[in-house]
Design brief:
- This protein is α/β, with parallel strands linked by helices.
- Helix 2 runs parallel beside helix 3.
- The chain is about 45% helix and about 10% strand.
- A 7-stranded parallel beta sheet has the order 3-2-1-4-5-6-7, with helices on both faces.
């Protein structure tokens, strides 16, 4: 948009009042379309990755409660079938679509399958991911690459496969599950933190490029949520951590996390921070980075 005034405060337009009115009307039209889309999720098609457990599973139930049609994706087909049954939705309103986020070549075909089934993709929840529990000097580069492939490059690949149809419709919403670690990096999570920082940067740029088309982005940065993410986290040699961290065990339920995320989606929020007192780290990092650096250097988790 061109500024209506030059450096001397003189109008660039013959009728600046009309130009201002046009700008305000265009902005109001965009807000009206987006607000109408966000607040009513009934019969919207919501594609959830990582839907077989944890936050993704809880989001499936919450979106189902809102009347949405679901596409459930993860690697474990059996678990997806279990979640499908538990949603209580008619078979015609749920598509089970097993997906490996590291297989980028398969993603365009997956998008075609969803479009063929439901005709449109309204919301994509990018929830697939793996965590980490290892020090940098003890982590192989292969593990770093594996985490980035799932948490970042897989997310980017699916987004690029879906984006053209959303741009064509001038409507769509990306819901991205990042983490407090996407703001505050802590020991034992170097590659995980890097992937979550990268995801935030990518989707901030995507929002800036596509907002005027009517596309939305909501980034969720949860704190400790009571899921099995720590059990599935990788050690430096690629083996699984295999146990629940204490903070994770005491964390917010995935059901409450899902409710907060869906409320944020309906409200069109840019970001949402489900969790406990740990989310204060996001604000402390912004205003007191030195304090946070001192706090996390000796941070450890039992």
């Amino acid at each position: 948009m061109v500024c209506p005034y030059n450096r001397l405060g003189q109008s660039r337009f013959a009728r600046p009042d009309l130009e201002l009115k046009k700008c305000l009307n265009r902005a109001a039209d965009r807000r009206a379309v987006q607000t109408k889309f966000m607040k009513n999720l009934r019969q919207k098609t919501v594609w959830i990755t990582g839907a077989s457990s944890g936050i993704g599973e809880a989001l499936a139930y919450e979106f189902a409660r809102q009347g949405a049609k679901l596409v459930l994706s993860a690697r474990r087909a059996g678990e997806l079938q279990r979640v499908k049954t538990a949603t209580g939705l008619p078979d015609a309103n749920v598509l089970v679509l097993p997906l490996d986020m590291t297989d980028g070549a398969s993603l365009p075909t997956a998008v075609e399958t969803v479009l063929r089934t439901f005709g449109a993709i309204d919301i994509v929840v990018q929830n697939a991911g793996i965590s980490q529990r290892s020090l940098i000097h003890e982590t192989s580069l292969d593990v770093d690459r594996q985490i980035m492939e799932v948490n970042y490059f897989g997310v980017v690949a699916l987004t690029k496969a879906v984006l053209p149809t959303m741009r064509e419709r001038k409507q769509g919403h990306f819901v991205v599950i990042s983490s407090v670690t996407g703001y505050v990096a802590t020991p034992l999570r170097s590659a995980y933190a890097a992937s979550k920082h990268a995801v935030r940067g990518f989707f901030d740029a995507l929002r800036a490029e596509n907002q005027d088309l009517g596309l939305r982005v909501t980034i969720a940065c949860p704190g400790y949520i009571r899921t099995e993410v720590s059990k599935n986290a990788l050690h430096g040699d690629g083996s699984q951590h295999g146990k629940m961290d204490q903070n994770q065990e005491k964390g917010m339920t995935p059901e409450e996390c899902a409710r907060q995320i869906v409320r944020a989606v309906k409200a069109g929020k840019l970001e949402v921070y489900p969790g406990g007192k740990e989310i204060l780290g996001i604000y402390l990092k912004r205003w007191f980075p030195g304090l946070v650096a001192r706090m996390v250097k000796n941070w450890n988790e039992a």
